[in-house]
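step 3/5: co-fold with D-malate
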Amino acid sequence: MIKINENFLKLEQSYLFSTIAKKVAAFQKENPDKKVIKLGIGDVTRPLPSVVIEAMKKAAEEQGSAETFRGYGPEQGYDFLREKIQKQDYFDRGIAIDIDEIFVSDGAKCDTGNIVDLFAEDNMVAITDPVYPVYRDTNLMSGRKKIIYMPSTAENHFNPDFPNEVPDIIYLCNPNNPTGTTMDREEVEKWVHYAKENKSIILYDSAYEAFVEDKNVPRSIFEIEGAKEVAIEFRSFSKTAGFTGMRCAYTIVPKQVKAYTEKGEAVFLNALWNRRQCTKFNGVSYIIQRGAEAIYSEEGQKQIQENIAYYKENAKIIREGLIKAGFTIYGGVDSPYIWLKVPEGLSSWEFFDELLEKANVVGTPGVGFGSCGEGYFRLTAFGTKENTIEAVKRIVEKYCQTR
Ligand code: MLT
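step 4/5: write C-alpha cells
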C-alpha cells in the first residue's frame, strides 16, 4: 500500500495566494462588468528591460546554431552571470564572496524552500509571525515539529525579540515580506551575534534589497562582520529586474558556514548544498541567465533602476492615499509592501471581502501570513501606476465614506 507523507496533512488546504486567486476568480465570474484591480500577490507589471530582451534574443539565436549551441549548463550557474553577481552585488559594495559560494537558481521561493533538505528534522526553527508562508510550509512538509513563532507586531516595531528557547534555524526577511518594514544594521548585527553564540544558522531572505534607500539598512547580511560564518543569503531577480515569469535567483552559501552531526562534528554547508543541487537541479536555462547577465551592464542598471523607482512611486501613492483616508500604515518606504491596520471591528478576511466587493480591489489578508497578522492587510506596489492610483482613489472614496 502506497503511503503519503503525512506532514502534508498539517498544511492549510490551499496555499495563501491560490486561495486568494480562487476567491477573486469567483467574484469576477459573478461580476463580469467590474474592473478588479489586483494588489495582492507581489507580481510585477513592468515589462522586462529592453537589454534583457536583446540579450535573450541573441542567446536564442546561439542555441539555433551548432557552433554555439549549449546543452546542460553548470548546476551552479554559468560563470558569466556569477562573475557579475560577485563583482557588482558584492565586491563593489565591499563584500568579498568567492564565485563558488554563488548558486544561481530558478527562484528564491524554491531556494528558501529547498534549503531545508540540509537540516535534521529535529532542529528547532524560528520564524516571524507574520511570515512569508514558504518558510513555515516547507518546514512542516519535511516533518519539522519544533517551530517557534516570533510575534512581529506594531508593539515591537516588527522586530521580534529573541525567543525564549534557542532556535537552530532562524529565518529573517529584510526588507520584510509581508510587513514592508526593515531591520537596521544594529538589529541584524544582534542576530548575527546571537547565531554565533548559539551555533544557529540564519537563513536571510533579501529578495527585496533593491528597494532599500536607508543607509542604515543593510542590503546584504554579509555587510555584517562574521555573518559569513552563520548565514546563507537568498536573492532574486524577480522583483529587482521583473523576472517573476522568467525564474532566476541566486543563493550565497559561504564556505565557512557550517552545521553539525549528531556527534558534534562540523560539516560545511557549501559542499552539501552543491551536492544537493547537482542531484536535484539542472541549472537555469542559458537564455534566462544571459537575460539576467544583461541587467549588470550600465544600460541594464539604468533600466532596472527606472522600474524600481516606478514601484517606489506606487508605494508612495498608496501610503499617502491611505494616510489621508485615516488608515494606520507601516512599510512601503524601503519596500514594495504596505502593511495596514484594518478598520476596527473587521478581521483581515472580512476586510478582504469588503474591499473586493466595495472597491473591487484585491489585497492580501494579514492573517494569511500568520496569526499575528490578524487585523492587518498587505497591499503591493507592483501594480501599474494607473491601477494603483485608481485603487487608492476607490479605497478612499467608496470604501471609507461608506463605513
Ligand atoms: C508575495 O506576494 O509574497 C510574493 O510574490 C511571493 C513570492 O515572491 O513568491
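step 5/5: annotate
The domain at 50-298 is CATH 3.40.640.10 (Aspartate Aminotransferase; domain 2).
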